[in-house]
Amino acid sequence: MRAIITGGGTGGHIYPALAIAKGLQHRFPHAQILYVGTTQGLEADIVPKANFPFKAITVSGFERKFSPGNLKVAWQALQGYRQARAVIKKFKPQVVIGTGGYVCGPVVLAAARLGIPTLIHEQNALPGVTNRILSRVVDRVAVSFEDSMPYFPKKAAVTLTGLPVRPEILQAERDLSLASLGLRDDRITILVFGGSRGARRINQAMTEVIRRFGNRPEVQILHATGQAGYREFLEQLERQGINLDDYVNITIVPYLYNMHEALAVADMVVSRAGAATLAELTLLGLPSILIPYPYAAENHQEHNARALADRGAAVLIKDAELTGLTLVEQMEGMIQDKNRLKDMAQVSQKLGRAKALDDIVDCVEEILPRP
Ligand SMILES: CC(=O)N[C@H]1[C@@H](OP(=O)(O)OP(=O)(O)OC[C@H]2O[C@@H](n3ccc(=O)[nH]c3=O)[C@H](O)[C@@H]2O)O[C@H](CO)[C@@H](O)[C@@H]1O
User: Fold this and answer.
1) Cα dihedral 335→293→274→205 (10° resolution)
2) At which positions is UDP-N-acetyl-alpha-D-glucosamine bound (predicted)?
3) DSSP letter at 354?
4) What distance in Å separates the CA atoms of residue 189 and residue 221, rounded to the nearest whole number?
5) Tens digits of per-residue pLDDT, 95-137?
6) For the chain, which domains are there?
């Protein structure tokens, strides 16, 4: 089987694309896969490192308002379309899969117009612009949240699959992870992080949390500040007269390379509302306090967070309303009420989709041309 996979710009589109590529290789051991992206996107760096052949075409994003720059972008889009068509004609894929980002536009459109089966995967509860447009021409749309379904045209074939997560997230064991992280078994463990790059606003609110929860015997906190915010956070604590050496139950790190272990020991999570994070939280049935990043495209993180909060799996705090006190109050509410925490965990687990990758590969198999 021969497949072209495309998706790019940020890790949020690239990692699901790579997961699908690996899923196809697993199902079809002789699969030949070509990844199409741009040279400017992160994919140009990440994809070759993952050992997939990579081909770049020229595309860039439109500005959302009219600007002369958009004429150049329109010209590039036409070029990109021609390049995509040429790549497709040469590689002769049986299927073309897009996971969002501008580069998907010309590649998936050219494939559809050449009569090649196409599938797109949407990660967020509010679908991105490219996927919304492409949904009119593709054979299948795979989505991560039920809430995104109404945004696609009625005649589109939309399937709820979920978002594939890293396999180690499901495999980590609680006891080994507690030992590896140096945490205790007899405390409620609260994991705090702000997406892959950290969140200054969450870090700011955390000083008050540390003041309130520091040395509380029933609680321990593991907080990843983000690489860029680590120094600043420590300075902030120092200015406020908080000495971490005084608190045995607070662990602060710049980044969690062992997120699978952190999630395995957590009883509740405080985080931004990126799609990958939410897929991980629901897969493990973790209750959470979500503070959506308000500048994500079209405020899509708030839609992601609502998909959990409206059903009772999470508490949503808007970034503009986040203070140390609001966070402390919500955390207290969850820690004090064990039944509520348990109910939230159950709802969260029901939203998790452990078979996401398998279900996406099933969708691909269904649209493949019959031999
Ligand atoms: C700012 C922004 O626009 N982000 C978008 C980007 O998310 P982006 O990929 O940045 O963020 P996500 O929350 O989806 O993923 C973060 C990932 O980093 C991991 N992690 C995080 C911190 C840490 O210390 N260690 C660690 O391993 C998390 O476990 C998770 O797997 O693409 C997603 C999918 O389109 C969107 O939903 C997000 O809104």
Assistant:
1) -30
2) 10-12, 124, 166, 196, 301
3) T
4) 6
5) 999 999 989 999 999 999 999 999 999 999 999 999 999 999 9
6) 2-163+354-367 (3.40.50.2000), 168-351 (3.40.50.2000)
Instruction: Please check the confidence at residue 63 and state whether its pLDDT lies above 60.
Output: no
Which amino acid, 138?
V
Q: What is the DSSP letter of 259?
A: H
| Residue pointed to by tokens 């600007």 | 67
The residue nearest atom 23 of ligand 1, judged by CA position, is 256
Centroid of ligand 1 to alpha carbon of 199 (angstroms): 11
Residue 277, CA distances (Å) to 149, 260, 332, 340 in order: 20, 11, 23, 22
pLDDT in tens, 282-305: 999 999 999 999 999 999 999 999
Q: Which residue has the tokens 């990844």?
A: 35
**Dist. CA 54 → ligand 1 center (Å):** 23
* C-alpha distance from residue 183 to each of 171, 172, 321, 331, 363 (Å): 19, 15, 31, 19, 42
Question: What predicted TM-score, i.e. pTM, was given to this entire model?
Answer: 0.93
Q: Which helix (H) or strand (E) holds 198?
A: none
Decide: 288 and 358 in contact? Cβ < 8 Å: no
Q: Which two three-digit tokens encode residue 63?
A: 């500005």
How many angstroms separate the CA atoms of 276 and 319, rounded?
19
3-state secondary structure of 7: coil
Q: Is the ipTM of this complex over 0.90?
A: yes
Crossing angle of helices 11-27 and 356-367, in 10° steps, is 70
DSSP 25-67: HHHSTT-EEEEEE-SSSTHHHHHHHTT--EEE----PPPSS--
Which residue do the tokens 């790019």 mark? 8
Q: Supply angle C-alpha 128, 133, 139, rounded to 5.
A: 105
CB of 285 shorter than 6 A to ligand 1: no
Entry field: residues in the chain: 371
243 appears as a binding residue in the annotation: no
**Which pLDDT band holds residue 73 (cuts at 50, 70, 90)?**
confident
